[in-house]
Amino acid sequence: MGEFRGxxxxxxxxxxxxxxxxxxxxxxxxRLLAGEDPWQFMEELPTVDxxxxxxxxxxxxxxxxxxxxxxxxxxxxxxxxxxxxxPLTRTVWRLIGTLAA
Length: 101
Hints:
By secondary structure, the protein is mainly alpha-helical. It contains five helices and no strands.
């Protein structure tokens, strides 16, 4: 993968989704303990699949010596995530759409 170091499968998509789900549950729990109203914050939280994509993107950035990608490389990294994990394709394209906006 050369340019896309860090995108190699470190775990199955099911495991990545389970980790992301647990992280999301923790965030929700902490915000509830802090007294926040779930009606106020639930819509701003990412989905489980968005968290998985963010995690894979962060790993790709870390594997590239922490250099944040420019717009072209960002697109390629996200596209590579979609290619490596086809069930995430819809989420990746939605995130690419928000980057372009």
